[in-house]
Amino acid sequence: MPSISTRSANATDAETVARFIHALLDELSGGKAPTPDVVRQSAETVLADAGVVAVIASADDEPVGIMVLNECTAIYAGGRFGYISELYVRPGMRSKGIAPHLLEVASQESRARGWKRLEVGAPGQPKWKRTLDFYLRNGFEEVGPRLCRII
Which of the four CATH numbers 3.40.630.30, 3.10.20.30, 3.30.43.10, 1.10.472.10 does domain 4-137 have? Predict the structure, then answer.
């Protein structure tokens, strides 16, 4: 197993964050992700938001993954809670403990902020069953599909 470290990302990390998120979107969409420039612009905006925590995971001092955690609020959740909007590990580094490490960082951040709930959306099934199984193995429970309407 590689030596895994994490650090919070900031505005100067927008290019690195965007590169990972573009790879995630490209993988999920079958090669139909927005352009890297569009993703970079979004990364700059998101990283400037105080309600967002982005974390870069490195293995042996090389960036290998990213997680973006957002503060949300809902009555059903009892107030504020965390939502993992993006989590990506480079394909060649998967199954090496990096994603569980990022989930532990999310749990620590949740406790520090007083959140009692952490949510994540899994991609469509059954194609991404391995992703769903990963989250289930790591303490998440299925609560139903998440839907989206583009405005």
Answer: 3.40.630.30
